[in-house]
Design goal:
Layout (H helix, E strand, L loop, with lengths): L2 H11 L3 H13 L3 E4 L2 E4 L2 H6 L3 H14 L1
Antiparallel strand pairs: 1-2
Helix pairs in contact: 1-2
Length: 68
């Protein structure tokens, strides 16, 4: 993921660019995602969901309610 992509994600999430790297690297090391050249691929969705905070579940429920 290039610095421009990190900048974009950081702006969307309301965090610093370095925070994006800090969060993505452990997920990649655990084999949950792969990111390279601006592309992020989810390799293990179940593991990624298990490693996420409660906010993921809240957002997923709301998304399903609105669009499901």
């Amino acid at each position: 993921m290039c610095s421009h992509d990190h900048e974009f994600l950081a702006e969307m999430l309301g965090v610093r660019r370095s925070t994006v790297s800090e969060v993505l690297e452990p997920f990649q090391e655990k084999g949950l995602i792969r990111y390279s050249r601006g592309k992020c691929t989810v390799l293990n969705r179940k593991g990624l969901k298990a490693g996420s905070c409660e906010c993921y579940r809240v957002i997923a429920r709301e998304f399903e309610r609105l669009f499901g």
